């Protein structure tokens, strides 16, 4: 029977931000791959757009340029660690 990596079954809170201001929240999880850990979430969380109409979801008209991932602290039930990941650079998506 295959082994399932523990982080891949732990749902994580995501906060999508634009210019360091929260636009909304979502969930995701981390999966271990041969290239290292990757975040798995719905496309609209990162794109900030409706997947059917491509319309911006935020009432401000902004799309996320960063996602804050609220991780579980290892071996510390109920403690959290925040990690920010940039989504957009000066030239567009990273």
Describe what you observe in this structure.
The chain is mainly beta. The chain contains 1 helix and 7 strands, in the order βββαββββ. Strand 4 and strand 5 (80-86) form a beta hairpin. The longest helix has 5 residues, at 43-47.
Topology, element by element:
Elements lengths: L11 E7 L2 E13 L2 E6 L1 H5 L18 E7 L7 E7 L1 E2 L2 E2 L1
Antiparallel strand pairs: 1-2, 1-4, 2-3, 4-5, 6-7
Keywords:
94 residues; 7 strands; 1 helix; mainly beta; 5-stranded antiparallel beta sheet; two-stranded antiparallel sheet
Give a brief description.
Helix content is 5%, strand content 47%. It has one helix at residues 43-47; strands at residues 12-18, 21-33, 36-41, 66-72, 80-86, 88-89, 92-93. A five-stranded antiparallel β-sheet has the order 3-2-1-4-5. It has a two-stranded antiparallel sheet with strand order 6-7.
Q: Care to count the β-strands?
A: 7
**Uncertain residue segments:** none
Helix percentage: under 10%
- Overall spatial form: globular
């Amino acid at each position: 029977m295959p082994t399932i990596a523990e982080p891949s079954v732990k749902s994580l809170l995501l906060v999508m931000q634009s210019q360091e201001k929260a636009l909304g929240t979502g969930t995701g999880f981390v999966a271990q791959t041969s290239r290292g850990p990757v975040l798995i979430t719905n496309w609209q969380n990162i794109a900030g757009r409706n997947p059917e109409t491509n319309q911006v979801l935020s009432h401000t008209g902004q799309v996320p340029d960063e996602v804050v991932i609220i991780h579980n602290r290892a071996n510390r039930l109920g403690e959290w660690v925040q990690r920010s990941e940039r989504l957009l650079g000066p030239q567009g998506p990273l």
